[in-house]
Amino acid sequence: TRSAVAVRSDSGSGEAQLVGWVVPAGRRELSSRELRSFVARRLPAHMVPSLIVPVDSLPLTAHGKVDFSALPSASPAGSPKGTGRAPRSAPEEILCALFAESLGHEEVSPDDDFFELGGHSLLATRLVGRIRSAFGVELPVRALFESTTPAALAERLADAGSARPALHRARHTEQPPL
User: Fold this and answer.
1) Which tens digits make up the pLDDT trace of 99-125?
2) Which domain CATH number covers 151?
3) Partners of 5 in beta bridges
4) Which end of the chain is more exposed for a tag (fewer CB within 10 A), N or C?
């Protein structure tokens, strides 16, 4: 990217979220999903904007500063944008239900993007907690930033380890460890 700006914004549900506007380097068109994936690999999860809007240029004031009031509107999609296909497996079905519950949607399809539906880092943390409980796996929050759809996350869960490591008997010594 050539330049970018991020701003705290209140979502429609009254929760604060981080919104970013990015001027990509080069002439290649980038989707919000590609930009979010790029940012998620470089920043801690809490710093990744919920919405990333690619723009041709950032509006500037007469003094050369970013004119925040002139930034284009950035509002998440109000309804799912996926193919509407049915889940292909039980994990996909469970994940779709968990996504829908977390986002306040009636239904989410396996190809719907968590962040395009209005998800943000706080909701991601809550959703990952529910996924850990439902599947009994260890899953970092970053996984949701890297695999943003129920289908992609279902594939990732197949490779995830168990949430609780096996217990091993400790060796007894004469003095207990302090």
Assistant:
1) 999 988 889 999 999 988 888 888 899
2) 1.10.1200.10
3) 21
4) C
